[in-house]
Amino acid sequence: MFRFLRYVSVVSIAIVVAACPFGIAGDGVLHCYLTWQGDTSTTMTVNYHAAPGHGPSVVYYDTAPRGGDLNAYQFEVTGSSHRIPVLELLAGAQRDVHVVELTGLEPGTAYYFVAGSTETGFTDEKMFRTIPANGAVNFVTGGDMGTGDVVRDLLSHAAIQSPYFGLIGGDVAYADGEARQWREWEQWLDNWESEMVTPEGYSVPMILAIGNHETRGGFGQFVAPKAAAPFYFGYFAQHGSGLEFGRRAYFDRWIGSAVRLFVLDTGHVTPLNGAQKTWLERELAATPADVLTLAVYHVPMYPSHRNFAPPSVSALVRNAWRPAFDACSLTAAFENHDHTQKRTKRLKNDVPDPNGTLYIGDGCFGRSPREGNQAIALEDPTELANLGLSESYLAAWDSRRHFWSVDIAADATSIDFQAIDESGTVFDTYTLVP
Length: 434
Ligand SMILES: [Fe+2]
Known about the structure:
- By secondary structure, the chain is of the alpha+beta class.
- The protein has two domains: 2-129, Purple acid phosphatase-like, N-terminal (Immunoglobulin-like, Sandwich); 138-432, Metallo-dependent phosphatases (Purple Acid Phosphatase, chain A, domain 2), CATH 3.60.21.
- The protein has nine helices and 24 strands.
- The protein has helices at 2-19, 149-160, 182-195, 225-228, 230-235, 275-286, 313-328, 373-377, 381-386; strands at residues 29-35, 44-50, 58-62, 75-78, 80-82, 96-102, 110-117, 121-122, 126-129, 138-142, 166-169, 206-209, 251-255, 259-263, 292-296, 332-334, 341-344, 347-348, 351-352, 358-361, 394-398, 403-408, 415-420, 426-432.
- The strands form five sheets. A seven-stranded mixed sheet has the order 13-14-15-16-20-17-21, with no helix packed on it. Strands 12-11-10-22-23-24 form a six-stranded mixed sheet, with helices on one face.
- Strand 1 (29-35) and strand 2 form a beta hairpin.
- Helix 6 packs parallel to helix 7 (313-328).
- The longest helix has 18 residues, at 2-19.
- Fe (ii) ion is lined by residues 144, 171, 211-213, 298, 337.
């Protein structure tokens, strides 16, 4: 019996050591990627993962390349680290998640940095750039990704656009908030870090909305959000820092002085109504009329695959937020979840309006495309009448993997939208003049 137990424990240790990517060396930076917790022109947050228990969280940086020579960098900043409790139990998954925020940066400026500590070692030198003050930027957006090979193809075409950031509308790695699916995030982060580097060499920061596949249970996880979505909150410093603080799944970002982006939660860990809606209404109303307003969230108000009509989640989202969007003439909303491509007419109160909101989607940045069931239904006069609509809200739709490339002109005088597929082909375009 004892011989058997001893055999089991030796085998277990062997499995643990083999499964742990840094268990033997005891050091090394595992992942390094960029988010924002605040101003996109003057701050940047470096997130990195390293073996547990190793040293402080440090980033050395400068406006000129220093080749990783720590003594040569002009600036050094220290952050903090945290652990995700459920990962502590899984062989190979344990790590410290380090968060280091760089502040006081110059807008529209390139920076060179290394992250780590003398105990873990440092990353190779990486580059990023801050958002220009006038908001003349381009970015890429989409949702419903996963970790398949086609995601790498899409990301490589996205990086060629030289985006200032990637805006992800939920359903990112498809780990469903389950700790045992931590390897999905390993692959997703590997894909992002290797592919999302622009031709000039800039690592592309990310802004992430939450989707049902970030969350154990998918919807309605209001009681213990951080336990239901441990990776979304634990891996990405966006609103708050560390796991012990009030990390929130809805927040806003100014993109220069001319564009304000609202990141929203379509009922995954935050109720649609209540504090989120109150905050959204207040902040939209307080935004000057000449500022472009954008929103990103997971479940579409104007679906191309799933049902438009109640009791769909789409109808719930419309009921909650559409009045606020309409009241301020929200410029554009990025929608996901349906695994199709779609572009709506400019809409107010569900009908075309020259000053209405453009809804862009529909979340097919890697997952298998679905048929446009609702889009097809909208072409049938009887179905339209059943939905209480006089005409289809859609201007274009396709069953095709893609991401959207979005170009905002200086001082936000116009926005160009391009849908680009996995072969790099542009297959839908639209220019919006606010
Ligand atoms: Fe989804």
